[in-house]
Structure prediction request, 840 residues.
Amino acid sequence: MFNVNRQMLTRGALAAAVAIPATLIAGFALAQVEGQPTPGGLGLPNMVTPVGLGTQQFYNMVLMPIISFIALFVLGLLIYVSYRFNEQRNPIPSKLTHNTPLEIVWTLIPVLILLFISVPSLRLLAEQVEVPEASVTIKVTGNQWYWSYKYPEDQGGGFGFDQMLKPESELQPGDLRLLSVDNEAVVPVNEVIAVHITSNDVIHAFGVPSFGVRMDAIPGRLNQTWFKIEKEGVYYGQCFFICGKDHAYMPIVIRAVSREKYNEWLAQAKQKFASADSRVRVAAESH
Amino acid sequence: MASSTMAGAHDHPRGLRRFLFSTNHKDIGTLYIILGSIGGVIGFLLSLGMRLELAYPGVQIFPGLAEALQGADPSMALDAGKNLYNVFITVHGVLMIFFMAMPILIGGFGNWFVPIMIGAPDMAFPRLNNISFWLLFASLVLAVISMFVEGAPGMKGFGGGWTFYPPLSSNTGSPGPAMDFVILALHLAGASSILGAINFITTIFNMRAPGMTLHKMPLFVWSMLVTAFLLLLVLPVLAGCVTMLLTDRNFGTMFYDPAGGGDPLLFQHLLWFFGHPEVYIVILPGFGIISQIVSTFSKKPVFGYLGMAYAMVSIGVLGSIVWAHHMYTVGMSLNAQRYFTLATMVIAVPTGIKIFSWIATMWGGSISFRAPMVWAIGFIFVFTMGGITGVVLANASADKQFHEGYYVVAHFHYTLSLGAVFALYAGFYYWFPKMTGYMYSETLAKANFWLLFIGVNVVFFPQHFLGLGGMPRRYIDYPDAYALWNLVSSSGMIFVTLSLIVWFYAIIDAFMKKRLAGANPWGVGATTLEWTLSSPPPFHQFQVLPRITGASR
Prediction:
């Protein structure tokens, strides 16, 4: 009876040990909504830009396996030497203090691993930094504590607006606390968007995890980055550089829509923000 | 103490005179260890406040803390609380680096054991040693005061992170005097460290006992030599960097103000030219300590002694030319980012040499698992964990996904909060019998290890997931999706808190029970000079200089 019970217990524990993480991970996968953080997520978000996909691939396929292997290898060695060479098992220590071939090997192999990492790394870096020809350019300015956007006149814009956190009292169903804003920035899907980033006061950083984009907004400098969203949707980002007391309260929301809808939005936004535009300018100049 | 043997040249001061005016390297070392422990406990309490706040989404405890600690008006409590959180992260960083790790590792263990290990009676400049310590004490006072004077308009304390980037730290972001207090604290801490570094370099180059050639010095002394050179090289840069900030703030200069032709990025380059070597300044003494301990308890000389020594030298050199990998998102040119990526990755090679050499030292050894050895093995594992995420972050391309996020927080806490602190505890339990003459309880020392090992891993491992998911650092509140791993991370603080309590109890227990340690409690593996002296060592050791013969180790 006791034996049976123990067997069942063991089997149950084994099944639970396999099933619980599996369901958890499956649950996370189900709960994953593109563009926003996944509750209890374990890995990178689903990427929607070529640069983001490249980053995901580089991390998941190259970096993650290599560093996991190294960690397990070192852990395995430590466990082995602790077991094999403890003083009960090995009372007489050896006098081994040099082994030149071994030392050459553990210098050269890391060099080879690093060379192997650097090839995809540098390729991805160039893709991130070199901005391709863009069909839409927007200017993003960091302020304490909100973002301002400007759409240039020659691309059908000629208006600007501020993007402020939606206070908790005004959240609608489907909104996300600390992420939803009053005015979403809209861009067309499948087109290269160049973003010019600067700041009016202190340093902020414009970051959208599912784009693989993170760029500092620095007063007196104009930084440039780009993304090409390959899927319609709403994408959330946050400020990634400490900028004072409301650093955690200046989210970013970018909505990617088809070209037609984008043109419609441009027309509407032009009217909606025509009056607001002067407000933006006043806000910017008052700093 | 063995004062009766000290007849002659020097008297043996007691009480206040002994410690306030001390020129004795061991007493000054003890003072540094006490100061570092106080700094570390305050720094820990600050992190406890942060983790309590982050346990659940929403802002819970900081408004109340702001009322209690800074006397904030209840109507302003929410804003004061958000500001106080930023002040906590800033002061936590400053305290843990400048007033915990550096004082204990360099000022404490360095002062205590560099002279003894090279067979010298004391440091080269004993009075300079005294002023180094008291400058640091004054600096700690200034840093703590900064939390209680105005920083950002209407707010108390400077809350811009330990890197103090302008314009948040200039008059734009923090017009109040809090930042001036921080700058002056940095000046004093910097002066203290520069004087200390001069003292170490002079001592090591000029006061080695006959026969103690550079290539026979214990690796801990090598690590302190490299550390001292790094300090001497980079702290003046920090001093210049924050002095320009001081004149920007108070005398109308425009070094970092684009409105006057300055550039905030100049500050970042100067700060990280200091800041990156600084992380090696914190970890190199730890490398030295771990080398001594692994060799002692494996009862074998260190494997590849020369490789180990020159790996530290090359880590020091390489560590000084990779600073801008902290700045991959500022908009550097493609070629600059390529260079800093490749140069940073190269550091993994000498670091790998050290990890593998420690394991090779254990290989074939006869390992006794006393408390210091358990801490040292723990160090090797957690430092490897921090090192491999460092390889990830070295890549400018991957860093764009992790910059200023929790992955970075996890990375540098694995190297420092776990790495440097584990080395520090290893050294503490290794040398405690030598410094006090008493043996601690082995059980308590190991309980301290397991509680901290479990605790810090529970705190920091889930932060990798938060960082991968995109959570930014230095946030008082976070989107609800990050709630699970934040709760797990915060729950680890229970173990960390318990481990600190056990640590205090272990010290009290050792002094109460007065188990005499004897000159060498560690047996045949302990071959450095400190184990030839009584425990604690006489007030002045090596009245007759030892003569070193035999092979290097």
The CA atoms of residues 192 and 478 of chain B lie 39 Å apart.
